[in-house]
Write a structure and sequence with these properties.
alpha+beta; 6 strands
């Protein structure tokens, strides 16, 4: 089956977060560019370069199941073949004190090629200040949120 032609960076972003929410590795990897220089940096994790490294990381993360994530405050810089989105991610996790929300800032870079728009880079880091009344949840050393 041929991959879906995604006609905008926004469509890729929607599918990206949907794949996380469903825990769907195949759908996640179908969104990445064929360029072997793709980059992914998960909160608290190292820089991963290349499709094999990116696939292995998502396989590890999604093997635990779906990621409870929502996205807000998208800022977009776009052009004809390259688009950059900066978003606030809210990830719900089960902590010792019960359910907690961790807020991350993520930059997603999309490129337009023969297969339509695809993800070239995803870089997420835990936000210093969540901007809400809930206490900041620390990510344990070595833990990767997504």
């Amino acid at each position: 089956m041929a991959p879906t032609m995604l006609t905008s960076a926004e469509a890729v972003e929607e599918a990206f977060y949907d794949a996380m929410r469903r825990g769907d590795l195949q759908a996640m990897m179908a969104l990445w560019s064929d360029d072997d220089e793709v980059i992914c940096i998960h909160p608290g994790g190292p820089r991963l370069v290349g499709l094999d490294a990116v696939r292995a990381s998502w396989d590890s993360i999604l093997s635990s199941g779906a990621v409870a994530i929502s996205v807000a405050q998208t800022k977009t810089i776009g052009g004809a073949v390259l688009c950059v989105h900066n978003v606030i991610e809210r990830i719900s996790v089960q902590a010792q004190r019960g359910p907690q929300t961790i807020q991350c800032v993520a930059t997603n870079v999309y490129v337009k090629g023969p297969r339509g728009w695809r993800m070239l880079l995803h870089h997420a880091a835990q936000a210093e200040d969540s901007g809400d009344a809930q206490p900041q949840v620390s990510v344990p050393s070595g833990a990767v949120l997504h």
